[in-house]
Amino acid sequence: TVQLRDGMSAELVAALRRGELDLIVGRSTADIDGAGLMLESFYEEPMAVAGRVTHPLARRRTLALAALGDETWGLPPPEAAHRQARRCDKVLAHSLQHTLLVVMPGEVARREARQGRVRVLPVALPPPSGPVGMVTAAGRTVSPAAAAFADALREAAGARSGTVSRSAGGS
């Protein structure tokens, strides 16, 4: 049996260390640093800035990040800034009712742009906290179901990015 648990990185890492979880899938954060954990990096997920199609900046061909300082933003809480697409969808839905800009995973922003819901602004953002990957407790054997799930994740991630790398301590 595979059970999914949603939560903040710090609480999930603590549960992994206590043996309550076999693995964590998500973006690497500072919570993952430390002895006893293994990070398997799947891919990098750059973030993007998007706004509704009628946003005043939507037609700009170039834009500096500094030019966005006076804009109104729709942001998830800081601890959830790089979370799942459904959280981005909630922020996005609110921003579409207002003249807000949102930061979301680039893949989500491009999907929404293809559907005509948003315009991705031509601005480069600094890299997010870390790669998307899987964290396990070093030296701990996972359940057969978790091992099969991990193999399926590796296969999907390898097909997406072409590479998967493993490192100790989240580095």
Structural summary, described in words:
The protein has 171 residues and is α+β, with helices and mostly antiparallel strands. It has 4 helices and 7 strands, in the order αβββαβαββαβ. The protein has helices at 9-17, 85-96, 106-114, 144-161, and strands at residues 23-27, 37-43, 47-52, 101-105, 118-120, 132-137, 165-168. The protein has a 4-stranded antiparallel beta sheet with strand order 1-6-2-7, with helices on both faces. Strands 4-3-5 form a 3-stranded antiparallel beta sheet, covered by helices on one side. The two termini are 30 Å apart. Mean pLDDT is 80; it is low at 81-86.
What are the defining features of this structure?
four-stranded antiparallel beta sheet, elongated, alpha+beta, three-stranded antiparallel beta sheet, 171 residues
Which residues form runs of ≥5 with pLDDT under 50?
Answer: 81-86
Helix count, DSSP H or I runs of 4 or more residues:
4
Q: SSE string, helix = H, strand = E?
A: HEEEHEHEEHE
The side-by-side strand order for the widest beta sheet comes to 1-6-2-7
Mean pLDDT: 80
How far apart lie the N and C ends?
30 Å
- Count every beta strand, where a strand is a DSSP E run of 2 or more residues: 7
Radius of gyration: 18 Å
Relative helix content: 25-40%
Structural class: alpha+beta
User: How much beta, percentage-wise?
Assistant: 15-25%
Largest sheet: 4 strands, antiparallel
Overall 3D form: elongated
Short précis:
With 171 residues, the chain is α+β, with helices and mostly antiparallel strands. It has four helices and seven strands; from the N terminus they run αβββαβαββαβ.
